[in-house]
Design brief:
Blueprint (H helix, E strand, L loop, with lengths): L1 E5 L6 H10 L3 E6 L10 E4 L8 H5 L4 E4 L10 H16 L3 E5 L13 H13 L1 H15 L4 E5 L3 E3 L7 E4 L8 E3 H14 L8 E4 L4
Parallel strand pairs: 1-2, 1-4, 2-3, 4-5, 5-6, 7-9
Antiparallel strand pairs: 8-10
Helix pairs in contact: 1-6, 3-5, 4-5
Length: 209
């Protein structure tokens, strides 16, 4: 598959790209600074919100993976990316999108544990802009006809992949952390499998891993 990766130079993106390459995928990375592009990718220079850049990146692509995270004070990043990316994907005939959201985001059908409901309320109080952007992103994808998945991990950590992951479309995880390397594996799995289409599953590194 040819997979377009957004956020390839970030902490999660640097984990995702090697996983995709090892699995035999061709990776196209949209990067603002070509000197930071990961090895083994075809770099398309520009901003992921730029409708003039996206068609070049999406040409011949089969799927998009986004590892974009919060960027300073840019609290509207995720919604702006959807606004530019969704029509560009439709125009290019690319249907599959897998991205990263957060466990603090609320979605219809959630069965969050009491602990996680409290965390969500706290996140809405402490980081209202970031949460509003993520929840707006979810609503925006729900309004498209594309085959999207938004993975909702809790607090991300560095470290090697464990291969032991909790993943559920509605029930929040027992674990409260996830290694970025495990998240990268989940994103790559979902691109290839096509599972959890039009869902926002919770994911975490299993306890004791």
């Amino acid at each position: 598959m040819r997979v377009v990766v957004l956020g390839a130079t970030g902490a999660t993106g640097r984990e995702v790209v090697p996983v995709l390459l090892r699995r035999g995928h061709e990776v196209v990375a949209v990067v603002r600074d070509p000197s930071r592009a990961p090895e083994g990718v075809r770099a398309v220079v520009g901003d992921a919100r730029d409708p003039d850049v996206l068609p070049r990146a999406l040409q011949g692509a089969d799927a998009v993976v986004s590892a974009l995270g919060p960027r300073g004070r840019d609290r509207g990043l995720q919604r702006a990316v959807v606004a530019a990316l969704a029509p560009a994907m439709l125009a290019a005939g690319v249907r599959r999108y897998v991205g990263v959201s957060g466990a603090g985001v609320d979605a219809p059908g959630d069965r969050k544990r009491r602990r996680d409901r409290a965390v969500s309320r706290l996140m809405h109080l402490l980081a209202p802009g970031a949460v509003a952007d993520k929840e707006g992103e979810l609503r925006a994808w729900q309004g498209t006809a594309l085959d999207w998945t938004l993975v909702r991990p809790p607090r991300l950590q560095d470290g090697p992949a464990t291969g032991r992951v909790e993943l559920d479309p509605h029930r929040s995880t027992r674990s409260v952390t996830m290694r970025r390397a495990d998240l990268a594996q989940v994103l790559a799995d979902l691109v290839a499998s096509g599972e959890h289409v039009r869902e926002a599953p919770f994911a975490a590194t299993a306890r004791g891993a």
